[in-house]
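Customer escalation, tier 2.

The customer says the design service returned an amino acid string that "doesn't look like it belongs to this structure." They asked us to rerun it and document both sides in this ticket. The original structure tokens are below, unchanged.
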């Protein structure tokens, strides 16, 4: 079964309508039927609060029992603990599925962390920077805090973003408008890297970088 099918199975078992479920987690009434391959981390947080008996590891992977029984496994813990912390996710696993929005599975979460400075910043996830293309703004190994952009027209031009692409994976770049209406321009702060265009059709997720954690 898919994630959508498992969620519908849970709702049927609990005799909860899709409308009631959607209202409980503050999404549109058609949300359940719009689910593709996974569920976004902010939605998982709301589901874990409103429906605490649902085993989210089962929901995301199909493994284990539908309902939580006793001590849940580490993946279920990692997802539910996001209520009190920000998930640090793997740069190799994260990505959306053609809906311009990141989609993070429990297996992508390396850990969750409480960062007091980020509590009021609406942070959805943190991710580690790799490479030197954004030096001196960011160094390889820096951890950036990101807020998912759910409407592409709200891109803040000239700000640094995390971009999930089909072909090149995860990119951390400063975004600018492109002369090509079907692309955006990705610019590195390191002058040794040339700007390049990213076709909008290649973008699977966008997130604005709103903070950074750095070790000396």
């Amino acid at each position: 079964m898919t994630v959508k099918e498992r969620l519908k199975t849970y709702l049927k078992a609990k005799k909860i309508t899709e409308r009631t479920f959607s209202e409980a987690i503050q999404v549109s009434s058609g949300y359940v039927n719009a689910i593709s391959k996974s569920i976004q981390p902010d939605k998982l947080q709301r589901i874990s609060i409103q429906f605490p008996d649902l085993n989210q590891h089962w929901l995301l992977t199909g493994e284990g029992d539908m309902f939580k029984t006793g001590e849940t496994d580490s993946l279920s813990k990692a997802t539910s603990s996001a209520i009190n912390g920000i998930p640090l996710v793997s740069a190799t696993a994260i990505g959306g599925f053609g809906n311009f929005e990141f989609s993070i599975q429990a297996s992508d979460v390396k850990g969750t962390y409480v960062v007091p400075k980020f509590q009021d910043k609406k942070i959805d996830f943190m991710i580690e920077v790799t490479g030197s293309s954004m030096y001196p703004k960011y160094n390889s190994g820096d951890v950036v805090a990101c807020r998912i952009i759910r409407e592409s027209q709200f891109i803040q031009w000239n700000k640094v973003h995390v971009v999930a692409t089909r072909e090149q994976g995860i990119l951390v770049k400063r975004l600018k408008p492109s002369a090509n209406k079907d692309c955006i321009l990705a610019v590195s702060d390191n002058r040794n890297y040339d700007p390049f265009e990213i076709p909008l059709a290649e973008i699977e997720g966008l997130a604005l970088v709103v903070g950074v954690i750095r070790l000396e």
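Tier 2 assessment: The sequence is consistent with the input. DSSP finds six helices and nine strands in the chain. The longest strand covers residues 203-213. Sent an explanation to the customer and offered a walkthrough call.
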